[in-house]
Specification:
It holds the Pfam family DUF5606. The protein is of the alpha+beta class. The chain folds into 2 domains: about 45 residues, SH3 type barrels; about 70 residues, no CATH class. Helices cover about 30% and strands about 20% of the residues. The chain contains 4 helices and 7 strands. The strands form 2 sheets. It has a 5-stranded antiparallel beta sheet with strand order 4-3-2-1-5, with no helix packed on it. α2 crosses α3. The longest helix is centred in the C-terminal third of the chain and has 14 residues. The radius of gyration is 17 Å and the shape is globular.
């Protein structure tokens, strides 16, 4: 699963793909059927890259991509409009280590909505983009 370039914009529903950058912000395209283009000013809007999003866990944060992989492997995915008890039971399966006091039903709904958006995209089955050579070199020196 390749989530590079996919972002969530605060105050805007759905997910967006970064398609460009200008002096004041980013040019985004919605991932829904309308393919609406949007220019977002970085000083007034918050962007969250799906690659960087984590969920509170009991023993450390859980990466969103790992939760998506477990949802992908699960047999049935509940509707995002399901009640909180159903969502909590499902999240105990796909993210058993999530912090039940800090992860709210609204968070679980948002994750399932995002999953339903990206599961139809070609990048859903792509391998994650490789790190640039300079980043790989930095990681290998940090491990020593």
């Amino acid at each position: 699963m390749n989530l590079r370039g996919l972002v969530s914009v605060s105050g805007k529903p759905g997910l967006y793909k970064v398609i460009g950058q200008n002096k004041s912000g980013f040019v985004l395209e919605s991932l829904d059927e309308q393919k609406v283009k949007l220019v977002v000013n970085i000083s007034t809007s918050k962007l969250a890259s799906l690659e960087d999003i984590t969920v509170f866990g009991e023993n450390g944060d859980l990466k969103l991509i790992d939760i998506f992989e477990k949802i992908k492997a699960s047999e049935s995915v509940p509707d995002a409009k399901s009640d909180g008890k159903t969502l909590r039971a499902y999240f105990r399966e796909v993210a058993p280590d999530h912090d039940e006091e800090k992860v709210y039903a609204s968070d679980m709904k948002k994750i399932l909505v995002w999953y339903s958006i990206i599961k139809e995209l070609p990048l859903f089955d792509e391998e994650p983009a490789a790190l640039p050579a300079s980043a790989e070199a930095e990681e290998s020196t940090e491990e020593k």
